[in-house]
Specification:
Length: 433
């Protein structure tokens, strides 16, 4: 690690040989933070087994505690007991799940809840969900971070129309707390298609497990849902078991793909609502062999990686990994359907094209994605933009590009603390024939 004026640079490990390893991943960010919200709204005691502990989930835990929720337990085994929610101050960091899932819950607190976050978080879209809360009878001041929700201990709820094309989290956030609103919540989406639909499926599935009645519908002539509903009613306490984070698994699987190696991830669920599961199809399309047996997923990389033309609208979280794979592929790639990534941790389309091009790559930003041509890449500095997935994309490229320095590798702690040591262990145990 090199320090330069307070900024750290991590020398990304390079390898000529194939990576062979088995890598266990901690729990899913999306499942952990949903379980925390539902447990905080439930009657009784909930347990969360295998919770992810990372910046995003710790911010959620701290935020809920600030409102009066009791969260105890041991590291990844959490015990959650709700009480009467009161006002407080919430730090959202850069976490989309915190800034979009907590305000609807804060409406149920008795008192003012003040939200702020990282400087960069002030740029992330929030106006849609804050305006929706106003329509549902909640007093909110502000349209972006920082903002305040003036909770009265109850919220009216009812019908609201929103444009959720900027983030599925607007829909998930309103649904997660909606059962505790007097009339429940019905959301109708109007606008361009909603991204990350599997994340909405995850929300609905977890609400059903909590005994909440949910529904979804699509307008005539469309197969895609655009209306979601939660009936008013109690939220049941649940003992949750959190699946490993499959999106966080993708850089490790990519290591097999770009080195012609073999990487296995244990405890890969047979069925899941996690977007990361889609990496199987993507890697197959790029020429890798992908097999699932006895609860483990194994990827074997090809001698030469092929390009891919793929719509990532539903699985935008995977775009940085796929862009890194595409930059190392032997044929052109096209990543489509991800205009909403401009509102992620950073403008990921701008960041990925700037950083890959700075290494000698040939990437063009399109209106809704990236066009990536094969090009020989050389070393240099890879900027992370405080974005955990930019940092891991740099690590993937570093496997094949010598002298690549990744800025602020610690930013991976947003969802995967200890990434560097996991990466080093993968390489130490498994580079071979
Ligand atoms: O609900 C969730 O847990 C998430 C939904 C998605 O957000 P967007 O719909 O804003 O892309 C995803 O990208 C994010 O990492 C997690
Ligand atoms: C977009 C992401 O995170 P967030 O939950 O902060 O939106 C991500 O993890 O890729």
């Amino acid at each position: 690690m090199v320090q330069d004026g307070g900024v750290s640079y991590w020398s990304a490990p390079t390898t000529d040989g194939p990576v062979h390893a088995t890598v266990s991943l901690p729990g899913s960010k999306s499942i952990t933070n949903r379980a925390l919200i539902l447990a905080s709204l439930a009657e009784g005691t909930s347990r969360i087994n295998g919770a992810l502990r990372s910046r995003d989930t710790n911010l959620m835990i701290d935020g809920l505690r600030a409102l009066g929720v009791s969260i105890t337990g041991d590291d990844t085994e959490l015990v959650v007991e709700s009480g009467v929610l009161h006002g407080g101050a919430i730090d959202c960091g850069l976490a989309g799940t915190v800034m979009r899932f907590l305000p609807p819950l804060a409406a149920l607190a008795e008192g003012k809840v003040v939200f702020d976050g990282d400087e960069q978080a002030r740029l992330r879209p929030l106006g849609v969900i804050l305006e929706a809360l106003r329509v549902l009878g909640v007093q909110v001041s502000g349209n972006a971070l920082p903002f305040t929700v003036c909770g009265t201990g109850a919220a009216e709820g009812g019908h609201v129309e929103i444009d959720a094309s900027g983030s599925s989290q607007f829909v998930s956030g309103l649904l997660l707390s909606g059962a505790r609103y007097r009339h429940g919540v019905t959301i109708r989406h109007i606008g361009r298609p909603v991204p990350s639909m599997p994340h909405i499926e995850m929300t609905l599935a977890m609400l059903r497990s909590s005994g909440v009645q949910v529904g979804q519908d699509s307008s005539a002539g469309s197969a895609t849902p655009d209306t979601w509903q939660v009936q008013p009613g109690p939220v049941k306490a649940v003992d949750w078991t959190v699946e490993p984070d499959l999106s966080n698994a993708t850089p490790f699987l990519a290591a097999a793909a770009v080195t012609g190696g073999r990487v296995t991830i244990p405890h890969w669920p047979e069925t899941t609502t996690q977007a990361g599961d889609a990496i199987r199809g993507i890697l197959r399309q790029m020429g890798a062999e992908v097999g699932w047996a006895d609860g483990a997923l194994t990827v074997e990389g090809p001698a030469e990686l092929g390009g891919i033309d793929v719509d990532l609208h539903d699985i935008g979280e995977l775009a940085p990994t796929v862009a890194a794979l595409a930059a190392l592929a032997a044929a052109p790639s096209r990543l489509r359907g991800i205009a909403h990534l401009r509102g992620h941790e950073t403008d990921r389309l701008a960041a990925l094209s700037a950083e890959i091009n700075a290494l000698g790559g040939r990437v063009a930003e399109t209106e809704d994605g990236l066009a990536i041509e094969p090009a020989p890449l050389g070393g240099g500095t890879w900027h992370s933009y405080a974005d955990h997935r930019m940092a891991t994309a740099g690590a993937i490229l570093g496997l094949r590009v010598p002298d690549l320095m990744v800025e602020d590798i610690g930013t991976t702690g947003k969802t995967l603390p200890g990434f560097e040591s996991m990466w080093a262990r993968m390489l130490a145990t498994g580079v071979g024939s």
